Amino acid sequence: MILQSLRLVNFGLYGGEHRFDLAPEPDGQKPVVLVVGHNGAGKTTFLESVRLALYGKRALGARVGQAEYERHLLKRINNFAKDRRASVELAFKSQHLGNEDLYTVRRSWAARGASVIESLEFERNGAPVEDIPSEDWNHYLEDIIPAGVSQLFFFDGEKIQDIADDQESTGLTDAIKSLLGIDILDQLRGDLALYKSRSMDRDGYTDLEGLRRDLEIAKSDLVLAEEEIGSLSAKRTQLARRSEASQKVFEQEGGSIALSRDTLSEELKRVEADLTKQTNALKSLVNGVAPFALAPKLLERFSADLEKARGQHSATAIEAFVSSFQAAVGNDDKTWTKTHFAQLKDFARNSQSTGPKMALSTEPDWVLAKFSQVADERVKVATLAAQLAELQKQRATLKDQLKNFRPGAASGAFEELKKAEFELGAVETELNRKQGEATQARALIERLERELRKSQDAVFALARAEEKRDLATRAQAALNEYEERIVQMRLASLSKHFIEAFSGLVTRKSLVHDVIVDPNSFQLKLLGKEGREITPSELSAGERQLFAISMLWALGRTSGRELPMIIDTPLSRLDRKHRTNLMANYVPRSSAQVVMLCTDTELTPDLSKIISPYVSRRFEIGAVGGGQRTEITVLRAEADAQVLETTDAH
């Protein structure tokens, strides 16, 4: 894996957009990239941004919660960012399916009040990585550089100092466990033990023989029930034929009529009552105007005479009214004269029709109104006549049926019919009961067969679970054996690489002859001449720092991973001789790519001269604007003073 570039936008001190081109020269002769700046210029922020790009929340620790992570992201947004957004983008090359691909991981976030909206983009060769679900991108990135291993390649002066000052070597113990994969082995063992425990909890007794026995009994019961159903069905057919024959004999002997005599009598009474009712209704109509419907011409002439009589009656009434009115007015009212009253009487006499007068005992209008009902009465008479005819027909039929009835004629046939019907009903009841038993037997068989299949599957699963538990037990034993072997092999390699690194860095070359790592506790022991143990107190402060650096180097080499090395301010507490050894023997050889972050006071001219042949690119960073933002200057390595680019976001 080789880092290609790092782009920061409003991240920490890096206000605006800044880009670091980190790719070393292809020939591999200049693996070092220098980032030089005074304290507070942004060197530690550089290392933090790389970790954040690769691990996200995991960069802060394995047990950091989401709320704490969001608070951290809020703090890392540059104070001068107007849109309150920030991002880190890391590009690197790594092997994938035998090819060297260019990966780009970009984490962006924006403040939304007290919370943060974060997004992750992951590309391979300029296109989104689609063969891996986006929710698994973080896991894939950690597979490339596991977080536990990264501490062996990405470390700062504080980590070196912590390891150097740790008398119990706790920090190194954790690093060694991470390198050896002991934590993973412990997790695997725990998972296997949990699997065995859970699989045993799921074990249950299954009575296969009992289920098979119950199933056979249910099947036998079904066979017997179906045989009885067949016999009862045949018997029911015979009885149905017998009942049908008895029914015919009974009907031939008048049995049907005998059974229905009371019903017929009641029906006859009802019909005769209806006849009486309808006859009375017809008589009522005949007593009215209905007979006039039989003489329409006579009715027409009589209606014409009534119209004349109504006119004569009206004229007489008017003349009487005028006379009465004249008498009431008298001669005092000058408005009405005798001439007026004479004219009114003449009008009344002239309006009278000529011819003989018809004497009526009632008003002509009442008589005419009665005549207007003749049409409706004719319809009612016709309807009643039809109903009477139908009722008379029903009465005649019922009387004929009752006339043919002979008491006791079909008693024998009726008894035979009742007997046949009773036997048929009993057989049908038994048949229905057997059919119900057969239905229950089928349901029971279906349930037992289902339970038997489940039980057989469960027995098979139990056998598989037992086999898996056996495999888990063997896997646990294999893990133990693998752990013993890998620990021995890795610890031997670790000791070899440490002695090689430490001897090349310290001035007292013969100080440490061997290092022993306890395979159980992973505690370190340094051995001098003749196997004498060297305690940490016997090492100077600088030698303890070189001890820490050498151990980290050895751990990285032992891991077998080709990863870049990022070292933040490793030269503190080292004297001039040890700094020279570190720059000459460690930095150029520790990895195919080394990004070294150091202060301008640490990188003295003589050290710069030593490391210069191995430097492919050098960045100088400095805080400007009262320490509120960072300015980056890129220098050509061979010139060491010529400014190629100055980046200032403001």
Description:
By secondary structure, the protein is an alpha+beta fold. It has helices at residues 43-55, 66-75, 137-144, 147-150, 157-165, 170-180, 182-201, 208-252, 255-259, 261-286, 296-329, 338-350, 364-371, 374-403, 411-505, 541-559, 576-586, 605-611; strands at residues 2-11, 14-21, 32-37, 85-96, 99-112, 115-124, 127-128, 154-156, 514-517, 524-527, 533-534, 565-568, 594-598, 615-624, 629-635, 643-648. The strands form 3 sheets. It has a 7-stranded mixed β-sheet with strand order 8-12-13-3-14-15-16. A 6-stranded antiparallel β-sheet has the order 2-1-4-5-6-7. β12, α17 (576-586) and β13 form a beta-alpha-beta unit. α5 crosses α16 and α11 runs antiparallel to α12. It is elongated and about 165 Å long. The model is unreliable at 637-650 (pLDDT under 50).
Describe this protein with a few key phrases.
single chain, 650 residues, alpha+beta, 7-stranded mixed sheet, 6-stranded antiparallel sheet, 18 helices, 57% helix, 16% strand, elongated
